[in-house]
Amino acid sequence: MVTGPSRSLAEAATPGSRKGGAMSAYDSTADTLRHSRRVGELMGRPIVELVQRSTQHDLSKTETPELELFDEHTPALRGLTYGSDEYAASLEALRPALEHHYAHNPHHPEHHADGVRGMTLVDLVEMLADWRAATERHDTGDLGRSLEINAARFHISPQLQQILRNTAEHYGWL
To answer: Which pLDDT score is estimated for 76?
Structure first.
């Protein structure tokens, strides 16, 4: 949120209208306010998409062909440590549901031909929130450890890995 004095566009357009400074024929405030409003308009589109995704996340798991397999195998996953050999083996039984799920949900790197490189920022935000929520389903869940495992698994660059970590820390998820 911007703090401090605000001026209307009409006040900003008045030559020499600055207080406490040298008189100037040009006051940049009107241009800055137009720019600020335009950035807000442009940010609206990803905000709307994030809100939509927040209400539609993983709904494909509630229908065939995913539902039946997730009903059968999810309870066993809860007691396993993410990234362990046992966890990977149990996912094999879920393979048909996971393939369908990944094909229909762009917040998974597996959805994209080039993995994480094919994702958008909105995909990444949803992915990170998904990873955080997934850690909460396991007794041994640890987002920091998941970030390390997934960086190797999905070939995430150190720079993007740090951005994901920064974001998780910013929201208190680590």
So the answer is: 85
